[in-house]
Amino acid sequence: MIARHRPLVDHWDWQRHALCRGMDSSVFFSPQGERGQARRAREEKALAICARCPVHEDCARTALRAGEAYGVWGGLTEREREAALLRDRARLHEQNSQVSAACARMPGNAEQQTPRTVGRSDSAPLWPTT
Ligand code: SF4
């Protein structure tokens, strides 16, 4: 079978339509030590641009998948992306717990069988003890 992959350029094609293309990136990334009102004001400016961007969903998805730690991407601030990733991890953990619990309840699960004595009339050990 021949594996068909999309050309790499397709993954980034959305960036050609980015509203921020050619803009000063300092609107989207905080300078070192930026805090409080200055940070909020800069983020609001960036978020207003993202809100009008035709590719904000692709942008947000790419940033979340890549675990982008810095900047405003796809209409999400650093803190919003971090919160979304934490929610996602918690949801995955919950799903894994449910799958593990369901597997443990399945008939034939090794933990539910009585090893060594199943089908035997006595419970003598299977190997000599002396
Ligand atoms: S969503 Fe925002 S950061 Fe992403 S491409 Fe559009 S304008 Fe740029």
Automatic annotation (TrEMBL):
Alphabetized UniProt keyword annotations: 4Fe-4S, Cytoplasm, Disulfide bond, DNA-binding, Iron, Iron-sulfur, Metal-binding, Transcription, Transcription regulation
Cofactor(s) the protein needs: [4Fe-4S] cluster
Protein name, per record: Transcriptional regulator WhiB
Post-translational modification summary for this protein: The Fe-S cluster can be nitrosylated by nitric oxide (NO). Upon Fe-S cluster removal intramolecular disulfide bonds are formed.
Region feature (Disordered): 97-130
Domain 4Fe-4S Wbl-type positions: 19-83
Note on how the cofactor is bound: Binds 1 [4Fe-4S] cluster per subunit. Following nitrosylation of the [4Fe-4S] cluster binds 1 [4Fe-8(NO)] cluster per subunit.
Matches recorded under PANTHER family: TRANSCRIPTIONAL REGULATOR WHID, TRANSCRIPTIONAL REGULATOR WHID-RELATED
Sections of the chain in a coiled coil: none
Principal cellular location given in the protein's record: cytoplasm
Superkingdom of this protein's organism: Bacteria
Role played: Acts as a transcriptional regulator. Probably redox-responsive. The apo- but not holo-form probably binds DNA.
Transmembrane regions: none
InterPro entries on file: 4FE4S_WBL, Whib
Pfam families: Whib
Binding annotation for [4Fe-4S] cluster: 20, 50, 53, 59
Gene field: whiB
Subcellular locations according to the entry: Cytoplasm
The organism's taxonomic lineage, starting at the top: Bacteria, Bacillati, Actinomycetota, Actinomycetes, Kitasatosporales
Keyword Transcription: yes
